[in-house]
Write a structure and sequence with these properties.
The chain has 2 domains: about 80 residues, Defensin A-like (2-Layer Sandwich); about 25 residues, no CATH class. It is built from 5 helices and 7 strands, in the order ααββααββαβββ. It is globular, with a radius of gyration of 19 Å. The termini are far apart. Bound molecules: zinc ion.
Length: about 140
Amino acid sequence: MDDKVYEQLLDQAYSELPEVLYKKERFVVPEVSGRLVKTRTQIRNFGEIAKHLARDQEHMHKFMLKFVGVRGDLNANRGEVILHSRFQPAILNKGIQKYYTEYVECPHCTSPDTELIEEGGIKKCKACGHQEKVTRL
Ligand SMILES: [Zn+2]
């Protein structure tokens, strides 16, 4: 069997594995659940997402406003955000994903188990101890 055939077989074997096998241990960033209300966008599970990422709603809210470039209102008690424009969920999910990469995930070991210290200027990993500077919001 030459290398090329072997590689093809290997590829096939991978693509036939059920997806759950890969994703079982992987941390999943939640997707936004929202709706358009006239000229605005309501994110109804903002609090749940923040909780899942173990971050402050206000911190994530600040990031999202910068990301989408419009004003918005956070209702932390209800865990909801209203953005002052209309957005497709894909854009908002991209924002949450970017927030996760910048402010939650450890770049060294990819653990989501991190915390922000030094008034949000340092991201510190609880799993491997890695620390890095992040932009204060
Ligand atoms: Zn780490």
